[in-house]
UniProtKB/TrEMBL annotation:
Transmembrane regions: 12-34, 298-318
Native source organism of the sequence: Paenibacillus chondroitinus
Name of the protein in question: histidine kinase
Catalysed transformations (reactions): ATP + protein L-histidine = ADP + protein N-phospho-L-histidine
Domain Histidine kinase: 478-584
Pfam families listed in its UniProt record: HAMP (PF00672), HATPase_c (PF02518), His_kinase (PF06580)
Domain HAMP: 319-371
GO molecular function, one term: kinase activity
Membrane topology designation: Multi-pass membrane protein
Entries under InterPro entries matching the protein: Bact_2-comp_sensor_kinase, HAMP_dom, HATPase_C_sf, HATPase_dom, His_kinase_dom, Sig_transdc_His_kin_internal
Annotated compartments: Cell membrane
Stored Gene3D superfamilies: 1.10.287.130, Histidine kinase-like ATPase, C-terminal domain, PAS domain
Length: 592
């Protein structure tokens, strides 16, 4: 445990990691590669074998189709059936004539398969058999009693490929031969032929294997009962075991490794159509793994060589990497002590040079941030000093207005006194240090003072109608929100109006918000100006900074769900709707 209690050095950690993360992965990867190669080798060999089997089964199916075609052609040929009938009915004096006619008629169909055709048997309805080429040595009644004979009679004009059947011929040592049969239908009423049966040898199927490239593998075609139809020359007859036959019967095609025999084999098989036959391909397992064994030795030697070379290079790189890191650690210690001039060199490998430049740039940025911080603190102190100094100006302005008010009172000039009093109250409210919020009722009073000044200024050219919901008067809002909007209605709406103007100021509480509406019947705004404001594109271009300032202040403090909405007033003028949240108490206002 003491080994892990103390932190390791970077170089020691890298050495251990290189040994653990190089040797083990390379060995594991090499093993996996060999296993994958072995699996792919078997898979590719199996796929090639199945492709070969498909070609062989296709060729075998073609041979079967050819046999079925010839059988069908003979079985429905009226000339052949008529000759066979006349031959059956002829006496010995003219029988030879019909035999020659039958041979000429059959030669038209059998010339392409003459080397594999053993015999053609015509079974008659009232008994008797005519054999073409070779006679039956099996009793006729025994043949008629066979199951395939009865099945074929039930399916007239349909060729039945019988496969291997035990019908011995004179002069043949094999007890069975390939057979196909057809029963002419009742349509042939003048024919005495009940069944036509072909018997052939396996020569055509054995020729299929001669087309395959010669190697140490073997091919065989077997029936479901294990009878061999045809095989390649190097096939071992002892390989057809009961266990292998059971595995072959399990599916139409597949593969398995047979370890039961003396020589371990990769066995692939595929079905030949609907015959119940299987084409089997056997490949010695030792032939498949011969290349694998050679590659295994090569990979093993290459793995050890790669590990040795990699470790040598890795130890050299570790030494080159740790030296600059030690330098960086020393420089960082100096920075921790307050030395911001402890820069490092930017030479060496590219990554370490980049690390050096980054470290030096970081020191420069730290010094720049410290300098900017000092400048910001200095500017903040200047701004605080200017704010303290600016507090003197409002008091001076209010005192001056109060003096003008007293002089107007002494001179008994009531208009000047009242206007000065309204302006003094308005300025005093604006510079009130009570925060950024004001009660709505107080804001209404300030507006009344402002309206008094504007009525004096414009000569009572407009009248103001108040529609204030009592619930709204107790709510709070930002200072000086309404005065810029009202100023826009008077200055831009009423200045050029010749008739009496009217301004309606309404306020109500609706769905959790305070809505304040200022409507005038002045000159109004163009559609282009309204579109610009709705698109938030330079709203100050048509109304000074009034609308822009108010809209921005509301959204800055309360979010984008609130603000101003401008619309045309019918039949003339402008309608401004202000939406602000309900504020019930004037506390925590500086956080808005």
């Amino acid at each position: 445990m003491k080994l892990f209690a103390k932190p390791w050095t970077f170089s020691a950690t890298l050495h251990v990691l290189l040994v653990v993360m190089v040797v083990f992965p390379i060995v594991i990867i090499s093993t996996m590669i060999l296993q994958v190669y072995k699996r792919d080798l078997l898979q590719q060999t199996t796929e090639r074998s199945l492709q070969t089997l498909h070609a062989v089964t296709y060729s075998a199916q073609q041979e079967i189709s050819k046999i079925e075609y010839v059988t069908a052609a003979v079985g429905v040929d009226r000339d052949i059936l008529s000759i066979a009938t006349e031959l059956h009915q002829a006496d010995e004096s003219n029988r030879y004539t019909y035999i020659n006619a039958m041979e000429r008629a059959l030669s038209r169909y059998t010339y392409s398969m003459s080397s594999q055709l053993l015999a053609i048997h015509f079974f008659y309805k009232d008994g008797g058999v005519y054999s073409f080429q070779q006679n039956l040595s099996t009793d006729e009644q025994e043949v008629r009693a066979m199951e395939w004979y009865r099945r074929t009679l039930k399916q007239t004009d349909n060729v039945q490929f019988l496969g291997l059947q035990r019908m011995k011929l004179f002069g043949q040592t094999e007890p069975a031969g390939l057979s196909a049969a057809i029963a002419p239908s009742a349509f042939h009423t003048l024919s005495d032929v009940e069944m036509v049966c072909f018997t052939l040898n396996e020569e055509a199927f054995e020729k299929i294997f001669l087309q395959q490239p010669y190697d140490k593998s073997a091919f065989v075609i077997v029936t479901g009962e294990g009878q061999v139809i045809a095989s390649s020359s190097n096939w071992d007859e002892t390989s057809v075991s009961l266990a292998r036959l059971e595995q072959i019967k399990s599916a139409s095609e597949g593969h398995f490794i047979d370890k039961a025999s003396e020589t371990e084999m990769l066995v692939t098989y595929a079905a030949v159509g609907q015959t119940g036959w299987k084409v089997v391909h056997e490949i010695p397992y030792s032939e498949l793994t011969a290349n694998y064994n050679r590659i295994y030795k090569i990979v093993l030697l290459a793995t050890f060589a790669v590990i040795a070379v990699f470790l040598l290079i890795s130890f050299y790189l570790v030494k080159g990497l740790t030296r600059p890191i030690h330098v960086l650690v020393r420089k960082m210690s100096l920075v921790m002590e307050g030395d911001l001039n402890a820069k490092i060199g930017t030479s060496g490998i590219a990554e370490m040079a980049t690390l050096g430049r980054t470290f030096n740039h970081m020191l420069d940025q730290i010094k720049l941030l410290i300098r900017q911080r000092e400048e910001e603190e200095q500017m903040k102190r200047k701004a605080e000093f200017a704010a303290l100094q600016s507090q003197i100006n409002p008091h001076f302005l209010i005192n001056t207005l109060n003096a003008i008010k007293l002089m107007a009172l002494i001179s008994k000039v009531d208009n000047i006194r009242n206007m000065t009093n309204a302006l003094m109250r308005l300025v005093s409210s604006s510079f009130n240090r009570g925060g950024i919020l004001t009660r709505f009722s107080d804001e209404i009073e300030n507006l009344k003072h402002y309206l008094y000044i504007m009525e004096i200024r414009y000569g009572h050219k407009f009248e103001v109608e108040w529609q204030i919901d009592p619930q709204a008067e107790s709510k709070y809002l930002l200072k000086l929100l309404l005065q810029p909007v009202l100023e826009n209605s008077i200055v831009h709406g009423m200045a050029g109006k010749e008739s009496q103007g009217k301004i309606v100021i309404a306020a109500n509480v609706h769905e959790g918000s305070l809505y304040i509406v200022i409507v005038d019947n002045g000159e109004g705004m163009t559609e282009e100006q309204l579109t610009q404001f709705r698109a938030k594109s330079s709203p100050h271009t048509f109304s000074g900074m009034g609308f822009a300032n108010v809209h921005h202040r509301i959204q800055l403090h309360h979010g984008e769900d609130y603000g101003l909405t401008l619309a045309a007033n019918e039949p003339e003028g402008t309608k401004v709707t202000m939406k602000i949240p309900l504020i019930f108490k004037n506390k925590d206002e500086e956080s808005l």
